[in-house]
């Protein structure tokens, strides 16, 4: 089974494994791919709605894989048992929901060898939660699919502060960001991606710069600009951060 760039990047960080748990599985594309490729022995596919689970069940059955998969209805990590899956994936859910599922069932999250997330927004919330709970970043990827940027985050529980943040934090401060601005940048982009030069990362940063500039232009054209001074200040801060990240990306790309 062929996967698009987004799910292919997720698969590269999740596989191989013994038991793959796909949270919010939808059509079970990732479990089907992993089972057919021989990259997992068993798959668990979960969703909060019966409709997607019915589609997942039909998809697995059509490919003769249903005997090696468990289809479960439930929210977040609740359908899993502690230690049942060595790799847990959540692709396509919001970062806040993903952060919440880890926090609510931290015992299950810790019992997995690796967690792999592809958040649909709010990746900064997910990274902050992982950091606070002692999950260290093992890998980060940035890809574009249909001209839309996506980020993939792999984390493993090790306890204590994540050392992945120290070097890029120093680099960003050297580029003129204050420590609080540098931390905000790393929550948004990720420390490992900040040190990378992947084309997908530039796609993401440039999209955010354009989005921020459009928002600033709307505020500046407002008849009540004075009432939006705080919002304009926040947007200016965000633009400064994105431009520093873009400069860091271009500098790293040139050096390579």
Q: What is the structure about, briefly put?
A:
With 256 residues, the protein is an alpha/beta fold.
Please provide a written account of the structure.
- With 256 residues, the chain is of the alpha/beta class.
- The chain has eleven helices and seven strands.
- It has helices at residues 5-14, 29-36, 50-62, 95-104, 106-111, 123-132, 166-174, 179-189, 191-194, 199-221, 229-255; strands spanning 19-23, 42-47, 69-73, 87-91, 114-118, 135-145, 148-157.
- The protein has a seven-stranded mixed β-sheet with strand order 3-2-1-4-5-7-6, sandwiched between helices.
- α4 runs parallel beside α6 (123-132) and α6 packs across α8.
- The radius of gyration is 20 Å and the shape is elongated.
- The two termini are 34 Å apart.
- The model has no long low-confidence stretch (mean pLDDT 93).
């Amino acid at each position: 089974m062929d996967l698009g760039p987004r799910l292919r990047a997720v698969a590269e960080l999740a596989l191989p494994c013994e038991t793959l748990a796909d949270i919010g599985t939808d059509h079970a594309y990732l479990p089907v791919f992993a089972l057919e490729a021989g990259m997992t022995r068993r798959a668990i596919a979960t969703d909060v709605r019966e409709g997607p689970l019915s589609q997942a069940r039909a998809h697995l059955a059509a490919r003769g894989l249903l005997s090696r998969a468990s289809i479960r209805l439930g929210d977040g990590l609740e359908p899993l048992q502690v230690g049942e899956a060595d790799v847990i994936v959540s692709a396509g859910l919001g970062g806040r929901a993903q952060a919440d599922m880890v926090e609510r069932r931290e015992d299950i999250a810790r019992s997995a060898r690796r967690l792999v997330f592809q958040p649909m927004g709010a990746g900064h919330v997910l990274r902050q939660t992982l950091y606070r709970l002692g999950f260290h970043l093992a890998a980060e990827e940035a890809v574009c699919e249909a001209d839309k940027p996506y980020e993939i985050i792999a984390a493993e529980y090790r306890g204590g502060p994540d050392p992945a943040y120290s070097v890029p934090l120093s680099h960003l401060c050297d580029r003129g960001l204050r420590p609080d601005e540098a931390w905000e940048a790393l929550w948004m982009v990720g420390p490992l991606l900040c040190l990378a030069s992947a084309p997908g990362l530039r796609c993401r940063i440039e999209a955010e710069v354009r989005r921020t500039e459009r928002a600033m232009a709307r505020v500046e054209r407002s008849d009540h600009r004075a009432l939006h001074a705080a919002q304009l200040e926040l947007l200016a801060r965000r633009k400064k951060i994105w431009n520093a990240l873009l400069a860091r990306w271009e500098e790293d790309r040139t050096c390579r």
